[in-house]
Amino acid sequence: MSETESQGVECAGLMGAEGGSQDLLRSLARRQPLLVDPGTSLRETLYHFSQDHLDAAVVRDPVSGLPLGLIRLRDMLHVIGFEGGNLEDPVAVHMQGAPLTLTADAPAHRARVMMAKRGVEHLLLVEHDGQLVGLINQADLLGLRAGGAEGLIAAIKAARDVKAMALAADRVRRRGAELFHAGMGVETLCAWMSGLNDLITMRVIELIEDEHDLPAVPWCWMAFGSEGRLEQTFATDQDNGLLFVPPAPEQAESVRAAFLPFAHAVNQALHFCGFARCRGNIMAGNPQWCLSDEEWRGHFRAWLREPEPEALLHATIFFDFRPVYGSDEPVDRLRDWLSHSAPEATRFLHGLAEQSLGIAPPIGWAGQFLFDRNRDFPHTIDLKTQGARFFMDAARLWALRHGIWATSTTERLRQAAAVKRRDPEEVAAEIESFLLIQRFRIHQQLATQDPDAVNRVNPDDLNELHRLMLKEAFKQAKKIQARVRQEFGG
């Protein structure tokens, strides 16, 4: 059996085996954590641990109910066994203050990355007003540490310069290729690589940040495009921007000027680490995409109000934004504003639908493959623009229409289907088809060094099973376009 044929067997065996990569943390808080007051003794806390088989408890303020800290079984045993701690000591004396905390409506991916970066095992979930929602641990967030990622995470954390980061990034890509060929599901693999790439980006920013005197204002490095969708593969360039909150609107220009040298240096360092500069210059080092929170909102407002071709093109990149490093809150506020504003922008949504319907899936009425007129790669199909795009566009469109925060294509399809109460089997077929196309793309990216051929496949190079599977995926693309046409016209 050839490598291509064996890849097809793996592909067929993994269809339907994917899991959601961007579930909201709230859905993972399945049980109420043990809550103890600051004056509760270690003895009483240990009793509850033994009775309920727990390894951590949240220390709360008895009046406000707000979480004050975290007390872990491991820490208690260490204190009692090696530091002379008394069983009658109050937990407040030995608790971990200011534990890692996220809002319950944040995506699970953000928690995975933060916990890996900080090396912690527990995370507190809170509402926006600080009230406790739940406590989750690494077992609730399986994914990022799979596939032997521990060593890679350690190497990223240990890097002290950009050269070391480049070596770590290369190790991530090589390990990702091994996992792909071993049969890891595409959605899982992309989330795995996106998580590690986030850690690389965060460490690069930390290294560059130490070399610059940045303004003392809230700011955040944002990801767009495939990185924003958690769909980075092995041929990806940079799509990023920077959001800052100036002390006053009139100070935006001076604050931007202070950030630009830093942002440009980060873009350079990421390029050195294997993340190519964006050909369209959509990077934080470009003054056009290093903006205040109000300037970013103004851009999105203008795009929603005037759905010109440029605005619709920007939607395919910028509307997939998510925070990567820095202060998440301003970016989350932008997403919250967009989730309320986009559903009302009917002209924009119809323009976006019309754009997505402007190209048809490459399969004819008799089931034959159709090809574009690319002279350099005749008799090939671009699996990005003539395959994965149909699912990405529809998912983005439905997410904007229904105020869905998720940015990944699969999670957008799942959440939109739940809102629309669609048949779960139909949605599963769409997701499987999208992931199948992504799998073919990744296989091609690993098989060629030509950057212009990384998404192109010649059906004649596929075995019969592969060709049949690809045709079925394109038929699902036709169906998803029919749903968009029915909902938005065109």
UniProtKB/TrEMBL annotation:
<feature type="domain" description="CBS">
    <location>
        <begin position="29"/>
        <end position="88"/>
    </location>
</feature>
<dbReference type="Pfam" id="PF00571">
    <property type="entry name" value="CBS"/>
</dbReference>
<dbReference type="GO" id="GO:0008773">
    <property type="term" value="F:[protein-PII] uridylyltransferase activity"/>
</dbReference>
<dbReference type="Pfam" id="PF10335">
    <property type="entry name" value="DUF294_C"/>
</dbReference>
<dbReference type="Pfam" id="PF03445">
    <property type="entry name" value="DUF294"/>
</dbReference>
<feature type="domain" description="CBS">
    <location>
        <begin position="95"/>
        <end position="151"/>
    </location>
</feature>
<dbReference type="InterPro" id="IPR051257">
    <property type="entry name" value="Diverse_CBS-Domain"/>
</dbReference>
<protein>
    <submittedName>
        <fullName>Signal transduction protein</fullName>
    </submittedName>
</protein>
<dbReference type="InterPro" id="IPR046342">
    <property type="entry name" value="CBS_dom_sf"/>
</dbReference>
<keyword id="KW-0129">CBS domain</keyword>
<dbReference type="InterPro" id="IPR005105">
    <property type="entry name" value="GlnD_Uridyltrans_N"/>
</dbReference>
<dbReference type="InterPro" id="IPR018821">
    <property type="entry name" value="DUF294_put_nucleoTrafse_sb-bd"/>
</dbReference>
<dbReference type="InterPro" id="IPR000644">
    <property type="entry name" value="CBS_dom"/>
</dbReference>
